[in-house]
Every structure is written in C-alpha cells, then in structure tokens.
Amino acid sequence: MSEWQTKSSKVVYENPWLIIKEDEVVMPNGKDGLYGVVSSKSDAVFVVPIDTAGNTYLVQQEHYTTRELAWQCIAGRTDGEPAEIAAKRELLEEAGLAAEQITIMSSARTATGMTTFRTSLCLAEHLSEDMSHFDSGEINQVKKVPLADIPRLIFAGEIAATESIAALLMATEYLKIHRKNHAPN
Question: Which of 7, 21, 132, 137 is buried deepest, with most CB atoms within 10 A?
Fold first, then answer.
C-alpha cells in the first residue's frame, strides 16, 4: 500500500482560531478523494484538578456550537505557551484555582478523520483558591465532584465532551497507577 498524496490544497475558510482546507488527495489504495481538514492555530490543554480529598472540579459551560449547558474539564488553548503554563492559566480563569504542580499525563488528538487538533491531558495538584483571574463570563458554574463519581456521570450522559471524558478517565487510571493515595475507590 502506498502513502497518501496531496494533489491540491486550498484554504476555504480562516479566522483567528482555525483554518479549513479542502484537499484533493490520492488515497493509499490509489483512489482519488476529497478531504476537508480543520486545523487549529493553537494546541489545547484539558486539565483535571485533584484536591487532597480525591475530588476534581468540573465547569459548566454553554458552547455556541451545541447551545447546551454541559459539564466538562477545565480546558483552553495554549496560544504558544508550554502546556504546563497554559494549564495553570486555564485553571485560574475557569475554576478560580491555582495549582503548584501540573503533570502532563499524555497527549491526544481529536476527530482525526477531519482535524489536526492536538491536546495535552493534564493533572493539576496541590490546589488553592485564587479568584484573581476567574472569568465569570465564560463559565456558568464550577462543581467539586469526587473523582470516584466520574464514571457514573459519564455513563449518565452528564459529561459528554469526548476530550473531557478522555482526560477524566485518564486521570482516574493515572492516579491508580502512580498515586494510590488519591485513587478513587
């Protein structure tokens, strides 16, 4: 099987946050194809804060695209910053929390059949309240939840954003492996 070939590529839309291209390709099987490719102009971070009691914090937000209030992880763009710095910034802005320690658990890609989005999945620990940069216009509500309750909330459909699901489940497993004293029961 041969590799993908790009016959032509044109930008069909661009704004300050993303670029959408339409690519004419030759697929590995030799057939011609057409792909719409969405590229973000910034990587992202998804942050799972964990306090000493084994709780995490979710934010409730309404996104224009879905027009639904949804519980999800703290998240945002890196805007060229290292992921650890961006994670600390997003944690302050979205949850009013400061973290002494950020651990990048892994990286992930979103909707790989049509996007190039790259995300760092981060664990935030040694938390303290700091409302100095909290952006109340972006977040509807912040909720403290036992990490042990996260699977139930996911299966109940209360957490539905795939990146948040990945980050939360990864944090649960990461803590089971690396930090047994914080692992959910």
Answer: 21
Residue 102: count other Cβ atoms within 10 Å of its Cβ.
22
| pLDDT at residue number 1 | 57
| Range 46-68 average pLDDT | 94
Q: What is the pLDDT of residues 2-12, one digit of tens each?
A: 799 999 999 99
Asked if residue 109 is part of any domain, the answer here is: yes
Alpha-carbon torsion (71, 61, 67, 111), positive or negative: negative
Locate 145 and state its tokens. Answer: 């939840």
Let me know if residue 147 belongs to a domain.
yes
Q: What string of H, E and C letters represents the secondary structure of the chain?
A: CCCCEEEEEEEEEECCCEEEEEEEEECCCCCEEEEEEEEECCCEEEEEEECCCCEEEEEEEECCCCCCEEEECEEEECCCCCHHHHHHHHHHHHHCEEEEEEEEEEEEECCCCCECCEEEEEEEEEEEECHHHCCCCCCCEEEEEEHHHHHHHHHCCCECCHHHHHHHHHHHHHHHHHCHHHCCC
In this prediction, what percent of the chain has a pLDDT beyond 70? Answer: 96
Q: Is residue 185 part of a domain?
A: no
Q: Are residues 57 and 17 in the same domain?
A: no
**Per-residue pLDDT tens over the stretch 129-140:** 988 888 777 788
Rounded to two decimals, the pTM is 0.88
